[in-house]
Amino acid sequence: MKNAIVVLFCCVALATNVRAQRPESIRFSDFEALTQVDNDTLYVLNFWSTWCRPCVAEMPYFDRAQRELESQKVKVIFLSLDFKAQFESHLVPFLAKKNLYSKVLFLDEPKFDGYIDKVDPKWSGSIPATLFVQHSKGIRQFHEGDYTYEDLITTINSLLSTKENEKN
Fold first, then answer.
1. What angle do CA 120, 84, 24 make, to 5 degrees?
2. pTM of the complete model
């Protein structure tokens, strides 16, 4: 019996670790390239951090939207603004616990004020913040602040219908 419990525990631990993400580090130039991808996918780029309570609270909404709308060419990407010195001690363990479905990237840029206006001139720099972009259709919409699930889905569906109307 004791061995069966140990084996079960190990299987659960391995299954959890298989899904846990280790975020890729990117620079702002990589982020800019992502906003210029010329395809039919709507990118939902959410700026967040492990120390931001509203960010963490809304993450399940984005993750759920990714799962539910994946067939509609929606791609949610979380862009972590955590401190580089806390990458291993905070970000990696946080992601292991959250077991997110959506892609997570670490924005490795120490001077946030150098790119905030490039993301959107109206961005004060506070998080959470989300950029919706679909370059080939000219869609670029920025939202500073948190989302409810309903508001997030409404925004995404509105942008998807904009994409569809432009096709016709």
1. 75
2. 0.84
